[in-house]
Write a structure and sequence with these properties.
Elements: H1 3-19, H2 30-41, H3 49-55, H4 60-87, H5 94-102, H6 104-139, H7 146-166, H8 168-195, H9 213-228, H10 233-236, H11 244-281, H12 285-294, H13 298-319, H14 322-330, H15 349-374, H16 380-393, H17 396-417, H18 427-448, H19 450-461, H20 463-476
Helix pairs in contact: 2-8, 2-11, 2-13, 3-9, 3-11, 4-9, 4-11, 4-17, 4-18, 5-6, 5-17, 6-7, 6-13, 6-14, 6-15, 6-16, 6-19, 6-20, 7-8, 7-13, 7-15, 8-11, 8-13, 11-12, 12-13, 14-15, 15-16, 16-19, 17-18, 18-19
């Protein structure tokens, strides 16, 4: 693809956005974008993964260093995505970046995997965990059987879907409220740690994790980076920003900055409340920290924090990823009805429906298959969650491979397009380092989880026949793009 072709593609995209009445939906401020970014990153992992990180290192310094290195990679990713957002405005984020740099097939395969598994699989797992933790918060223990929990989880997915169908304005207000509540709950735990004595309960020290400091950090970085990804969510809704080339970069950078500070603070809180050896021996570090901070009500307080955090990421997934399908349809790579934005609500109605309905269907189908094959009702919810976890693990390799491609995309676009309207400092250096870091994480995902990674590659490959069909239709009807 030549530079003229690139510029023609981008011009067509901008013209299509103008024709679709995007002024009506351009309602997101930098604060709104930052809340989408925070909602996409701060899920439920931060309440569990620090214990795994602690077990893979030999000192509090190494534990905090691992999270610090993860924060550095997150900041590099934020710089890359901020520069890409300034260069390639419009809805779809990663899809448009890959389209501008590498063409239609890689861009389509990302959008396909993003809809089919990455976002929908995450939404199902988070919905199940949200229901379970609301049970623990309200009743002190799980009270629903597996089937009822699946029904409630599916209903919650549909409820967030309906919320985001009402209007973009309603969706962002719900998002902002949940993010403020999520951050507030975490800060309460951090403040409680500051008032508590450090590691009051004596805990026996574990043996050394072994190896060199570099091998220990390499092992610890995998759970760190799994918990700190998600900044691409803000790019998905870039076309709805008031001033896209200014507001989206600011929102991405500020959102990631807040997340890095929160993650560092909550790890300090865990160390203060449990001590390093206590953190290493904890299988549910967030729950144990809440117990130490709040006493007998600690378990319920923790469950409430996880439930609120889960609701935040559920709304993010129902709000932002549908705009990827919108961008794909605009480029003739998805059915044209997905390219429509409701003039009154400013939302891609068909895309929101497709994401929500498919996620709820996936949850129900997996649970029904588990019950049919296992014939065990008592632990069918646990088996359902295990299957969905396996599905989500299958795209970790794909997810980080795409991150690396975004770093390479920025290098390609910087060479062909020059400086953007909004210059991002150190973006070239960030692109190189981020691409290398993401590639190493993808390799680590293959090494740690080879079978899920193979499944993820196969699921992406399933999109190739559909992609070729859409390309043939687009070539036969070049005027049919939105």
């Amino acid at each position: 693809m030549t530079r003229c072709d690139d510029q023609h593609e981008l011009a067509n995209g901008k013209q299509a956005m103008a024709q679709q009445g995007y002024a009506a939906s351009a309602a997101l401020s930098p604060f709104d974008i930052a809340c989408v970014v925070i909602g996409g990153i701060v899920g439920i992992g931060i309440f569990f993964t620090p214990g795994a990180v602690a077990r893979r290192v030999d000192s509090p310094f190494e534990m905090l260093l691992a999270w610090g290195l993860g924060g550095v990679l997150a900041v590099l990713g934020a710089l890359v995505f901020a520069d890409l957002a300034a260069r390639v405005p419009g809805h779809g984020g990663v899809f448009r970046y890959l389209l501008a740099a590498f063409g239609r097939v890689p861009a389509f395969l990302f959008g396909w995997a993003n809809w089919l598994v990455i976002q929908s699989g995450a939404l199902t797992v988070v919905a199940l965990l949200m229901v379970e933790h609301w049970e623990r918060a309200l009743f002190g223990a799980p009270v629903c059987d597996g089937t009822m929990r699946v029904v409630l989880a599916a209903a919650s997915i549909l409820a967030f879907m309906a919320t985001n169908l009402l209007s973009l304005r309603v969706g962002k207000r719900v998002q902002n409220t949940l993010i403020v509540a999520k951050i507030g709950a975490i800060l309460v735990l951090v403040a409680a740690a500051g008032l508590a004595a450090s590691g009051t309960a004596p805990v026996a020290a574990l043996e050394s994790a072994g190896g060199t400091i570099w091998s220990r950090l390499a092992a610890a970085m995998l759970p760190v980076l799994f918990a700190i990804g998600g900044w691409q969510q803000g790019s998905f809704v870039a076309g709805a920003a008031r001033r896209p080339q200014r507001d989206v970069p600011i929102g991405i950078l500020c959102g990631v900055g807040v997340v890095v500070l929160i993650y560092f603070a909550i790890n300090l809180a865990y160390l203060s409340l449990l001590s390093f050896d206590g953190a290493r021996q904890s299988s549910a570090i967030g729950a144990d920290a809440a117990q130490a901070a709040f006493g007998s009500w600690g378990q319920r307080a923790f469950a409430g924090m996880v439930a609120v955090s889960a609701m935040g990421i559920m709304n993010t997934i129902c709000m932002a990823p549908p705009y990827v399908l919108l961008a794909m349809a605009q480029e003739g790579l998805f059915p044209r009805l997905f390219a429509r934005v409701d003039a009154r609500t400013g939302t891609p109605v068909v895309g929101v429906l497709a994401h929500g309905l498919w996620a709820a269907t996936l949850l129900v189908l997996v649970h029904a298959a588990v019950r049919l094959l296992a014939g065990l009702e008592g632990d069918s919810d646990k088996r359902t969650l295990s299957v969905l976890d396996f599905v989500c693990d299958s795209v970790v390799f794909v997810d980080w491979l795409v991150y690396g491609m975004c770093g390479l995309a920025l290098l390609s676009l910087r060479r062909r397009m020059g400086a953007p309207q909004s210059r991002i400092p150190f973006a070239g250096f960030a692109a190189v380092m981020f691409a290398v870091g993401a590639g190493l994480v993808a390799i680590g995902a293959i090494a740690q989880k080879p079978w899920p990674s193979l499944l993820g590659s196969l699921l992406v490959g399933l999109g190739i026949p559909f992609c070729l069909r859409m390309l043939r239709q687009s070539a036969a009807n070049p005027g049919g793009r939105s």
